[in-house]
Amino acid sequence: MKPSTAFWRPVLTLTTTILGVFSISAGIAEASSTSSGGLSVKPLASAAPTSTKGAFPVRGPVTWGDGIGAGRGHQGQDLLSRCARPIVAAQTGRVRLVSYQASGAGNYVVVRGTTTKFDYVYMHMLRKPSLRAGQTVRAGQRIGLVGSTGRSSTCHLHFEMWTRPGWYKGGDVSDPVPYLRTWRRSR
Q1: Spatial separation of the C-alpha atoms in residues 60 and 13, rounded to whole Å
Q2: Residue 4 gets which letter from DSSP?
């Protein structure tokens, strides 16, 4: 029996719904050949947002900085902006953590989305936000100011998104760029 071989393949899916309305989606899927010569396809989680609801987290002009990877294990997207510009919650959620880390994040907040599958992490804030764990924040609500605290060389928001069970609780980092682009277009 020949072992399966995994590879990536473009996939186009056509589905019929009620009243003959069709839904077409395209994307990349993980595929593997089977011992019988067939093909097994498992769609990957979509990288594109399923909803345009949300708020771009920095009010005012930004320059896109380093993204995921960036040669040093960077786990988010940097949004460079003038210090003291407002930072707002990208999604409605409950504050999980408000803390400070001198060697990295500086002043930071972790918000667990109440209507999404993500934790949203906001780092390098100018000062400790006046939020508390358990508090609910709404999408678009001001939660802090752009800063350069912790391991930072310029004013910016370092923004991360983590899948459940969440930020440093067993979740995985997720690329925030598709969401950020969608939220930016809708503001």
Answers
A1: 39
A2: P
pLDDT tens digit sequence for 126-182: 999 999 999 999 999 999 999 999 999 999 999 999 999 999 899 999 999 999 999
- d(Cα 95, Cα 178) in Å, to the nearest integer? 23
CATH code of the domain made up of 63-185: 2.70.70.10
Q: Work out the end-to-end distance of the chain between its first and last CA atoms, rounded to an integer number of angstroms.
A: 56
- Enter the tokens of residue 150: 């912790």
| Coil, strand or helix at 19 | helix
Tell me whether the omega of the peptide bond preceding residue 165 falls within 30 degrees of 0, making it cis: yes
Whether the CB-CB separation of 163 and 99 falls below 8 Å is answered with no
What is the helix (H) or strand (E) element at residue 180, kind and residue range? helix 177-185
pLDDT score recorded for residue 52: 57
What is the number of H-type helices and E-type strands within the chain?
Answer: 1, 13
